[in-house]
Amino acid sequence: MLPDFTATVGALAATVAEREQGAGGSPQAARDFVLASFAAMPGYLRPPLRAATLFFDAWPLPRRGRFFHALSPAERRAQMEAWEAGPAHMLMRFYVSLALVSLWHE
Amino acid sequence: MSEPVADRLRADVAVIGSGPGGSVTATLCAEAGYSTLLVEEGPDLPLDAMAHFSGEEILHKYRHAGVTMAFGNPSITYVEGRCVGGGSEVNRGLYHRTPPYVLEQWAGSHHVDALTPEALAPHFEACEATARIAALPGTPPPLSQRLGEGAMRLGWDAIAAHRLYDYETGRKQSMSATFVPRFRQAGGRVIADMRAQRIRRINGRWEVTARHRSTGSVTIVADALFVACGAVQTPALLRRSGIRHNIGDSLRFHPMLKAVALFDTPVNRLGDPDPVHQIKMFEPRFGIGCSISSPAMLALALAANPPMRARIAADAARMGLYYVQNGTGHGRVRTLPGCHDPVVSVCHEQAELDQLYDGLQHLIRALFAAGAQAVQPCMPGFAMLRSVEDMATLPECLPRKSAMLTSVHVFASCPMGEDRRLSATDSWGRIHDADGLRIADASLMCGPTIANPQGSVMAIAHRNALHAIARRFA
Which of B86, B78, B127 is nearest to B410 (CA)? Predict the structure, then answer.
């Protein structure tokens, strides 16, 4: 099994959706919005962002034996909050911001 | 998918870019009897094709789906329109004439000829008639009034800005609803979904190499050419084409800091008109205003402030989003070999960042004076403030790592003027030593206006197009 970009974006969107009380949008729509935004962003930004996302998908592997996208919702949320408080906060803010736009537009 | 076009097109005049500058320019050229092509990289969508400020609109009408950034410390995220009508389709349509002191500054710094309020007045009037500039009839929405009340209690002046808006039909206006139909009526042809890749002068004419979404490679040959792709894409196209003197070296922004206020009563009701109040008395140091405060825009602004964001579900009607903006940030536009998209970098002068932060503190004071129960500066690491006294807990200076700067205005990347050390074009948009090649967009501005620049862009384009037509584009 390899890191999976689409599944990681889906897991991040689902985690944001789960903690966003009252937002009407679905995690699937949020994932699709993030992926569509990613596809439209400047070409020179996509490869490093994809690589960073795959790196973070693989991050829990040594300790938990599973990719981020395969963790339980509670584990994903704890992991994501740890990233948000650490050096990965910019990447997380990027994904959270895009997911929020979709979740709250519904 | 758009209709295919011929792979070779011929016109008297070609205008690349259909935003406020390009649409006005193309309309005047077509009405003067020239066969005119208006080329747009993005799609041709009706103004109301999708809800304004919705995710769908962001994906279809914004360049790069809104994910565009000038890299610096701090970086600035900015948005541009990419559709027929350009930025006018996706902005709120707030409208101001260029302040007289700004015109005086430009005339002095860049030696721009004939750029006085009196000389520009007929051009503003002509554009305002077509673009349907209007004041909000009746009472502004509470979210807007609150800012005005806060300013008044502090002894400050606030104004209600005009907009490109048809208040009779309740419809926002834009280029696709005003100048573009006028252009078509004059016999002009719009070609959407076509990206200009390079331009060159050949046999006394301009040749544009372009790529159309359906047709593929297309060549346009025109006697006269205006580049109006916006302040980032115009310098990118020119630099790709080997034209580089003062091109893309002086990009400017109106970066914003935002704050969300929580009031005791509803201020933000579904169906309210867009807010229009602005505090302009501190310009050019900074200007203050109201933002669209839908739940999505509140959530986006509060992305780094979960405690206030958690209140959106229950309290969105009592929440308002406000901004302060100034002219901090000096940017450059560069193209990279093999890269489709230009790279934008920005650096800041500390004094300008300090002024912006001072502006944020003025905004917070105004919101508390307006009766806010809590104010949340929209930046990571900033706590929710419960009173003016809590402002003592704010950091002394704006922490660069926390500054989440956003801008909806980009301009001044190819300034006009007779001073060749600073300017890319002459006083009328003609690129220096480029055989009559002209720029017709926000790139021509010589610096920030702090006020919304769309009126300036339209009036300067109108002035320069008439100048070009009178000289048969020489």
Answer: B78
